Amino acid sequence: MTVMDSYLSDIWKRTLTLILEKGKQQEKLDNLIFNQFFSDSKLMDLDEKKALVVVPGYIQQTIMMQNKEIVEEAISEVQERKISCEIIMESQLQKIRPLAAKKKAPAITGLNTTNLIQDYTFDNFVVGGSNRESHSAALACAYNPGQFFNPLFIYGNSGLGKTHLLNAIGNYVSEHAPDKKVYYTTSEDFVNAVVNSIKNGQIQEFKEEMNDLDVLLVDDIQFLAGKEKSHETFFYIFNELVNNKKQICLTSDRHPTEIKGLEERLISRFSSGLSVGVDSPEFETSVAILKVKLEKQSVDPSIIDDDVLAYIASNFSQDVRKLEGALNRLLFYSINFSNSTRIDFKTAVSAFRGQAQTIDKNDLTASKIIRCVADYYGLTKLQLVSKTRTKNIATARHMAMYLCRKHLDMPYVKIGDEFGKRDHSTVMSACEKVEKGLKNDDVYRKAVSELEKLMQVN
Ligand SMILES: Nc1ncnc2c1ncn2[C@@H]1O[C@H](COP(=O)(O)OP(=O)(O)OP(=O)(O)O)[C@@H](O)[C@H]1O
């Protein structure tokens, strides 16, 4: 432990004692809540006015935020000056750490610190149709910086892996060519650095330091919009680096030509290399991502039934952050509220009650599902529950059984009763067929998604 660490730890210990005392006085906290949600927190940083507090997860963060006033009162009392607190989760720390490192670094930009997010590598980036192009372009830039696409511009909605890819490039270069200077920053930090350098009369030094880089990675470049002073500096650095065959990689939430408030000359520079998009992951990619994230948390994927991963993948794959959040919720739920060592479909349905596809279960009945499926396939309800085994009727029947299981959580036997008294193994095998179809077949996925929409409106 460094002197700084033990200094912060001592302050936090005294603060925690006060938080409990004040919380009890104000009847907002008791020992149980305090021990469960406050005791694992840490004070990571402290300056004249602000404290950075880190907590293990979402729940601790939420509960501490609810008591933020008490927390701020307590630390202000310990420090004998007014302190405001930022409370973040450990998982957010990595994004913030570089800022802290930069602050302490003697150089203007902090280039002598490695500010890459170490966890984001090509090895743990799952490739699928939605990101194949951007992954391949990023890898090419990492393998041969400055040679292929300059700049590489990766764009797409939030949470689709742009920051991950950007850092993967940096980590790859740092590992394979340690003599190369790599710098990762967000455009907001870049703007702050420019403003500070101007204020301190060091803008020339700042530019020189930047021009000395081999790889410049700038995240969320859209935030440069409207910051005219920084445009000038960035334009200069951009030209120097590109002319010297140094690699620049940028990310944004939209294509360069759609960023409003950027000078034309910058837009044209950004578009002059290669622009590649990232999209929401498709089903297989989502499942593979979930498996990678489980591995990262040292959870054996075999304790989770395949249909559970399929369920999360079909409900939360708009962005990977949502997928990760859903997985964390499931793990949290099963650790705290389930007695079983396996995580099955039923556990998942309970964990996501009210979160996954918002079909109102109170409104939904087997009969309604049968009607929707029959309409969708152009059949009658009678045909669906009949003994007929014609392929199209059987497929529709399997689909209806699967939807009853998924949305009504009905036992197999009961579903069998609804479909002309079929036995439970027939229903089980029907559900398995649809689950398999969902993994391998776009037609199944499309049908389930359209049927679920129909079930909501009908
Ligand atoms: N293909 C993937 N394989 C593995 N993890 C992924 C993949 N895509 C995204 N992730 C994970 O999803 C999370 C969000 O990704 P990231 O921060 O890179 O998104 P982003 O596109 O930069 O979002 P924003 O625009 O909001 O900054 C990260 O934890 C990242 O590791």
TrEMBL record:
Binding site residues for ATP: G159, G161, K162, T163
Boundaries of every AAA+ ATPase domain copy: 148-324
Region (Domain IV, binds dsDNA): 335-458
Record has DNA-binding as a keyword: yes
GO terms, molecular function: ATP binding; DNA replication origin binding; lipid binding
One BP annotation, GO: regulation of DNA replication
Location of the Chromosomal replication initiator DnaA C-terminal domain: 365-434
Subcellular location: Cytoplasm
Classification via HAMAP family: DnaA_bact
Record remark on domains: Domain I is involved in oligomerization and binding regulators, domain II is flexibile and of varying length in different bacteria, domain III forms the AAA+ region, while domain IV binds dsDNA.
Similarity comment text for this entry: Belongs to the DnaA family.
Name of the featured protein: Chromosomal replication initiator protein DnaA
